[in-house]
Design brief:
Elements (H helix, E strand, L loop, with lengths): L1 H14 L3 H4 L6 H10 L9 H12 L1 H11 L7 H7 L11 H12 L3 H4 L2 E2 L5 E2 L3 E7 L5 E7 L3 H22 L3 H4 L1 H15 L2 H14 L6 E2 L12 E5 L4 E2 L3 H6 L4 H19 L1 E3 L7 E3 L5 E3 L5 E3 L2 H15 L3 H11 L8 H12 L12 H14 L9 H17 L5 H17 L1 H18 L3 H51 L1
Parallel strand pairs: 5-10
Antiparallel strand pairs: 1-3, 2-3, 3-4, 4-6, 7-9, 8-11, 9-10
Length: 504
Amino acid sequence: MRALRLVRILVTGARYGLDEFFLGHERIKALRWLVNLLFFWRPLREPRAVRLRRALESLGPIFVKFGQVLSTRRDMLPNDIADELAKLQDRVPPFPSERALAVLRRAYGRDAHEVYAEFDPVPVASASVAQVHRATLKTGEAVAVKVLRPGIDKVIDSDIALLDSLAGLLETLWSDGKRLKPREVVGEFAKHLADELDMVREAANCSQLRRNFDGSPLLAVPEVYWDYCAAEVMVMSWMDGTPIARVDELRARGVDIKKLARAGVEIFFTQVFRDGYFHADMHPGNILVTDSGQYVALDFGIMGTLNDVDKNYLAQNFLAFFRRDYKRVAQTHLDSGWIAPDTRVDEFEAAIRAVCEPVFDRPLKEIAFGKVLLRLFQTSRRFGMEIQPQLVMLQKTLLNIEGLGRQLDPDLDLWATAKPFLERWMSEQLGWRGWTRTLKEEAPYWGMLIPQLPRLAHQALRTDRLVRLEEGVELMLRQQRARNRWLAAIATMLAALVLAAFLG
């Protein structure tokens, strides 16, 4: 099955002429002649960007998501490709309405027109995993009905299995394979994709994020209608707004774009450090903006989580980075075990400084992100830095956020915008506010535990005495058995001597 899927990927790439991207170097250009010979019949009249987008669509959701991430990185792509890949954010070809209605019939046990007062069979948006239809409940509320693509789970399982095989091969054949942990990264990605295929889980994600930002002027999250949700269907309140990628239209509506860009950075850091729970698929197709400049989050299939250890580690790293305290950054990496324990802190500090200094005090439009990534990769390789699979989704989201900020406001200083928020958060965590909050959180536990301390101490003492008594009895028995064996040996020896004397 995996071999067949690999063959299909290679054939699809050749059919759409993607060898133009991968076999363009002079050293391997001869291979293109062979591909052209084998696929002489293929029509290549469309522009390269269109062919790339159509190839990713035909290969399925994992490849579409890859294209979505790339589409936010206009600093790393030619404009024609970035513009075309942006269509993958919400304009993936829909599946037939009849199949959507069949999914609803299977979920509810009756037709959609019996469940809803109105249901539009023409989807308003279509993505790699599901598509969205507009409907009205019989109680009058306008809702968005998200329907899972039929059979999508089998396609994803096949692709994940193939990726796992390729990752295993990478670990075996590449010297950096074990350090980069590709199989663990694929496993983390697979876990999030599996969550995305369960609409009830996505609805729960939406509900949690809505609670986290309840009353926030920065971010609005739709309400979930649980009575209408099922494994293949999610129903939430209809949200109006302008797609965030339409910057000119937002300006025409009076939205302050620079303020909007800064708000996006604050929303990201609030999710990560305050809540440890963040939207991990923040490409422009999943974000609307109201006329008041408030973000509207959509599509909650992929969410990331961080524990307290990861949050504190990241906050210290970010804050030290923003303060240009590279020694602290190096020491934090060493303390966390992410680099070899025999690494010299001063050498690692110097390497980090060489990567980071050129990007400070610069607006996003002047940062060559591709070069920064290359130097970071070279540094991590030199010092044997291990990939942390639990942070892969965070890194992906940070790429999306940075790319989105670049589209909204190329003059945005990402570091200066984030630094005050992180300083305030660290103060709340480590200062007197953090101590007070921790005390409030722990007070119910201590209030329950303190009255039980005498009984628990008595039990511990009794248990300790019993253990010592049992150990003493066991020691006496062992000594007694040893003494008995010694006496038996002496008795045997004496008996042998007496018998020998008698016989002599």
